[in-house]
Amino acid sequence: MKLTGIRHIDKIIPLHATGGFVREGQILATLFSKEYHIIMHMPVDGYVLKINDSLTGAEVLANTEKEVWIAIITPWDPDHRNQLMQQEDYYRNSEV
To answer: Is 18 helix (H, G, I), strand (E, B) or coil?
Structure first.
């Protein structure tokens, strides 16, 4: 995802602990800047396997080829995996 129009992210706050169950649509994390706050929602019911505690706002905005992630998740129901965006679609949708 490319964040257009945002020049600085002050902080990233994940709202769930590793291993916790999160329902689809619940807030997974929030990105804060002086002008905006961007809410990231859980795409499917599932578990948070890992939180990227070292992620910085600069890394999110750089939009480089480096893999940038907020959380690693796994769907509760394996059939829900088809609801998640595939890697090639993600990169196609993030191009300007």
So the answer is: coil
User: With b meaning 16 or more CB within 10 Å and e meaning fewer, what string describes 42-60?
Assistant: bbbbbbbeebbeebebebb
Quickly tell me which residue has 């959380």 as its tokens: 71
Where are the chain's structural domains?
A: 11-85
Q: Please give the pLDDT value at position 30.
A: 92
Q: What CATH class does 11-85 carry?
A: mainly beta
Taking only the tens place, the pLDDT of each residue in 57-70 is 888 888 655 678 88
State the distance between the two ends of the chain, measured CA to CA, in whole angstroms.
10
Residue pair 79/45 in contact (Cβ under 8 Å)? The answer is: no
